[in-house]
Every structure is written in structure tokens, then in C-alpha cells.
User: What shape does this take?
Amino acid sequence: MFRSDFLWDLNSECIRDLWVRARFGGGDVTAAANAATAMDDIDAALDVVTTDRATYGAAMSRFSYAISNLQITGENQAAARGRIMDADFAAETAP
Assistant: This one.
């Protein structure tokens, strides 16, 4: 089941952890090892964010398709109802 609150918590937690590490625990990023660690952390955070964005995009696409399908079905039903009413009226008024 799609739980947006869970994914939002993951994104928030990932970004918050990245900020805390960069702000307080990252140390000097001019050293090669620290810079590589910082880049790995940033890459991991970006992977989480892009995966979540893809999940949201797929869900939005499915909802968009379902909405479009329901709108077309409603239009078809309204047109069919009109044709039935026209046919009933024609049958009742015919001599």
C-alpha cells in the first residue's frame, strides 16, 4: 500500500541526518577521506529523494489515468442516457 507519510518521514529523516552530519559531524571536507564520505552521504540522500519522487510520480500518473478514464465513462453514460430518452420520446409520440 502506498503510504506517503512514511515516505515523507524517510525523506525528512534522510535530509535532516545529512544536514546534521555536514553541519556538526562532517569535519574538514578539504581532506580527501572526509570529502569522499560527504559525497557518499550526499549521493545516498539524493538516491532516496529521487526514488521517492519516482514513486510519487508513478502514483500521480496512475491517478491521472483513472480520473481521465472516469471522466470519459461519465461522458459516454450521459450521451447514452440522452439517446435512450430521445428514443423513448420518439416511440411515445409516434402515431
